[in-house]
Amino acid sequence: MTEGVTWLTQEAYDRLQAELDHLSGPARVEITARIAAARAEGDLKENGGYHAAKDEQGKMEARIRQLTQLLRVARVGQPDAAVAGVAGPGMVVTVAFADGDEETFLIGSREEAAISDITVYSAQSPLGVALTGAKPGDSVSYTAPNGRDITLQLKDVKAYGT
């Protein structure tokens, strides 16, 4: 149900939309003008300003594509009440590791991490994938990027912002 969905708070959605609007409008016009001015200087092979502006334009266009895709699949708010108590995107979970350490974090988007004080793990990360669909009391295992197998128990699940 939440496959491919990125849950965002209204604040995060608005911030990303404003960034997209700026990059697609004024920033695009500005970089185009800088490229034109650098091109007017002549010999493009040795024109550092031209090449720097073209690189910046490429990065900006990549970010525009990334934001467009993200906002296309984003859902603002919280997961449906029907999935309350089940770990997944948009949920704050508390887990206990085998050594007894506990950690609370949001399963969500890195875009939320920019505006949140809580640690955020992607739903596509090994930990996020292992936890998705789990309920409090369930034990899950996953292989960490370093190759270690980690087992943990899900202690608590609640919707982000509650």
Shape: elongated
Identify the quaternary structure here: single chain
Query: Major sheet, described briefly?
Result: 5 strands, mixed
Relative strand content: 15-25%
Q: Which secondary-structure class do the elements indicate?
A: alpha/beta
Radius of gyration: 21 Å
Annotated CATH homologous superfamily of the largest domain: Transcription elongation factor, GreA/GreB, C-terminal domain
Uncertain segments are: none
- Major sheet strand order: 5-4-3-7-6
Instruction: Give the helix level as a range of percent.
Output: 40-55%
Average pLDDT over all residues: 85
What's the β-strand tally?
7
The CATH architecture of the largest domain can be named as: Roll
Count of separate DSSP helical elements: 4
Overall domain count? 2
Mind telling me the CATH class of the largest domain? Alpha Beta
Secondary-structure element sequence?
EHHEEEHEHEE
**CATH topology (fold) name of the largest domain:** Chitinase A, domain 3
